[in-house]
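We treat protein structure as text, and this decision shapes the records that our systems exchange. This encoding replaces a full spatial description with a residue-level series of whole-number codes. Below, we set out a record of this kind in full and without editing:
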Amino acid sequence: MSDKPSNIRELISNELPRLYAFAFHMSGSRPEARAHVDQLVRDIKTKGGDALVTSDNPSDAVLGLMARTMEENLGRKSEFSFDGLDNLLRSDITRPIDLSGGVLQNSPQKVHLMLWELKRSCLTATLCCLPPGVRVSFVLTDLLGYSPADAARLLGIKESAYRVRLTRARKRIEDYLTPRCAHVDPQNPCTCTGRLVIALDAEFIKTPAHTLDIPHDPHDADGPRRDMGSLYRSLPDAQLTPEEKTETLAGLG
């Protein structure tokens, strides 16, 4: 009995959580991730999706289309920079969490939520400091588990070229986070609790529209992770609400 989807709507419905998570890792923004997924759906509706459904591996086919489309649309340069991220979050001394006012007023649960949002947003912004063509290699291999050979096929490039991208991505992320982030080494100066108020004041993070993708455990419960792939895989995937998923699928007509 085949597990293949019978039509394009079923395929997109099945793959939408992964496509949205991929788009979030690549864009660093929930609205932008949603926009990229919605654009993919519109493109598939316009061009037809029969080839995706009848391919040997429909799941990989639609992800490959998403990856190639996003790499092309995002261009060659990143919107973030490592220096810009330092200037935004790390230019001031750490500031204590204050529950007497602002979005955190009298709400320890809000602190829990925003610490998770900061951890995910900061690490994703770090990833988004890489050029899109380099970034996508880290996402496909170190987050989604594709081998370099399989990921290169998804992108339609040579494996040797893909491996160069992957090596560059891993080194640049490791070089940036290893001396800074307390999630890599507890002795490092940058902690989410010390930077939360700074991030909120700078509007680097905002209260998410839902808490479906906020774990119950504390943001630092799993301890430090010196392997960059393991660190990023420990992040919860950004999720669409059921209503957002219905709206996106409506784009197929």
Remarks:
- The two ends are 29 Å apart (CA to CA).
- The chain is about 60% helix and 0% strand.
